[in-house]
Sequence to fold (400 residues):
Amino acid sequence: MYSIQEIAPKVYWVGGNDRRLERFENMFPLPNGVAYNSYLMLDEKTALIDTVDQSISALYLENVTYVLGGRDLDYLIINHMEPDHCANIEEIVRRYPNIQLVGNKKTFQFLEQYYSLDMSSNYLEVKDGQELSLGNQTLRFYTAAMVHWPEVMFTYEVSQGILFSADAFGSFGAHAGNLYADEVDDNIMNEARRYYANIVGRYGAQVQAVFQKLSGLAINMICSLHGLIWRGESVPIIFDKYDLWSRYEPENKGVVLFYASMYGNTENAMNALANKLAQRGIRDMHMYDVSKTHPSYIISDLWKYSNLVIGSPTYNAHLYFVMDALLREITVLGFKNRKVSLIGNHTWASSAVKVMQELVGTMTDVEIIGTPLDVRSTLKAEREPELDALADAISESILG
Ligand code: FEO
Fold:
């Protein structure tokens, strides 16, 4: 049976959820599934905002059919051509052959890369700032290149102040009936941050550029393609978070300690340091074993906190490769503006500290706090003064 909600006068959510998918983009764990949102507007003209992933096509098409109630579909607004949203375009065109596909030049380039059916007679190409009247409602298009692909557009409905924001402001997690961020109280900002940092995190400058375009707009509701809808008082809350995240500014003063450890000796050094930090009054600390916790959760916390402590043994005269991969991914994401401390470990030849320093050195505005501690196999009590000095330096950087 169809499953829809009217989210504003004549604007309907027609999306759905996938709780079976193990990993988003086949990489990021989905312990609570994922929502694929699509929206249908009924006016003198009808307009559908994006489609959904192929995994929920049957329900989605039933939703669209039901809300249209026998009317034709005039426009499909294609804000994003990634397959988790564009998978139903051909089927929509086959069902509503008079439809106009609204996109920009890049949209149609990608559409032709993903589809073999010639749909060019349905194209309606729009430019940045162009408007399209549906009758009482007016859609205005804002190009939002690289948030998260180059063809991305945001669509702003002028009369009700609704921003259809493609992937931006999205979150992991399926809906449990409630569509709005203000209706649920569990974990929403953590999953919004994990989504942002891992999916959009590299494109902070582009997010800031779109913010400039949107400044001054009255936005009453933000409808992303994933997760919850932000409305009313939750709009400035998520905007403020996006502003921080896209400027790589930490939300909180606190420490993320993440380590690789084969036999528990590097872990022991990390624990000893965390204990000393706690005794110095540091309160917001989180520790992860990179071989156990999926990197997307660690990366999410890195976006949140001011200080990092990275611990790893030397491995094959280099760096333990799970840590190596994580640090390289953080670099790819353009992560910057943090305070970093290092703990290495080795038994006969030391490389870990050097490689970590090199990798961290490629990041912008990263300050190394304290002298890196290079453990020899196990941390001995005689080296406690060095650990104390490191704890003092980190505490000083947080508490001032
Ligand atoms: Fe949800 Fe960039 O696709």
